[in-house]
Amino acid sequence: ADRYVVSSFLLAVCFPVGSLVALCSLVQKMSSIKEGHILIIGSGLIGRSWAMVFAGAGYKVKLYDIMEQQITAAMENIGKQMEELEKAGMLRGSRSVQQQVSLISGCTDLKSAVEGTTYIQECTPENLELKKKLFAQLDLLTSERAIIGSSTSCLSPTKLFTGLKHVKQCIVAHPVNPPYYVPLVELVPHPETDPATVETAYALMKEIGQSPVKLMREIDGFALNRLQYAIISEAWRLVEIYKA
Predict the structure, then answer these.
(1) Which residues of 35-61 are buried (b: 16+ CB within 10 A; e: fewer)?
(2) Nearest to residue 158, comparing CAs of 225, 219, 224?
(3) Which of 70, 167, 199, 240 reaches 20 to 30 Å from 187, CA-CA?
(4) Which residues pair with 185 in a beta bridge?
């Protein structure tokens, strides 16, 4: 009883009421995410890498694609990558390759893939109409608790999420490709994204071993692309200078 009183006193002193409420809410949301599974949409290079990242952190993962052969190829590739990483001493997490692979399952039916999902990471090609069609489908299928993230590298949240019923749960989570090897992730909210969605996505990315950066609002190209192209442009200028 004395320990409880002391702990409560320390919490009250160290955290203002508003901050404490926000902290408790974040803990609840993270617990909720752990109760369900992660859905990765798209089994290409980025989708496979995301699946490996989440499995390495102990999350159950569903890998969705429209073609069964794509899923089969992706699962085989994931297993081979993990075996190579284990041999090189670079496999993430404390679980074996077999344990991590067992956490990932494939699915070609979107409705069943979404059931029980608490976090969705979209990894389809950079085609605005394709992505908007997919998010419209997800908007009809997803629950009120699931966060919907997009791996887009350049399409703004406004273009992707405006008009969705679950827009408050939507956010761009732009990784460096591939996310398993380069942990930086840009989190870019839609103007209507709930701040709790941003904080929960940030906490989740930290937990799975990524290095998230929060952008307070959207901007063309996000931060990473703008910095990257500035560096590339300067690199080419240096080449031209030394060639002259």
Answers:
(1) ebbbbbbbbeebbbbbbbbbbbbebeb
(2) 219
(3) 70
(4) 175, 212
Q: What DSSP assignment string belongs to 54-100?
A: HHHTT--EEEE-S-HHHHHHHHHHHHHHHHHHHHTT---SSS-HHHH
* Burial (Cβ within 10 Å: 0-12, 13-18, ≥19) of residue 211: exposed
Residue 1 pLDDT > 60, yes or no? no
Residue of 196, 234, 235, 229 lying closest to 214 (CA atoms): 196
Nearest to 174 by CA among 207, 152, 200: 152
Q: What is the mean pLDDT of residues 154-158?
A: 97
Distance of CA 145 to the CA centre of its chain: 15
pLDDT of 13 strictly over 70: no
Q: How confident is the model at residue 242 (pLDDT cuts 50, 70, 90)?
A: confident
At 60-88, the pLDDT tens digits run 999 999 999 999 999 999 999 999 999 99
CB of 141 within 8 A of CB of 110?
A: yes
Crossing angle, helix 17-35 and helix 195-207, to 10 degrees?
60
Tell me the pairing of strands 104-107 and 61-64.
parallel
CA distance 65 to 70: 7
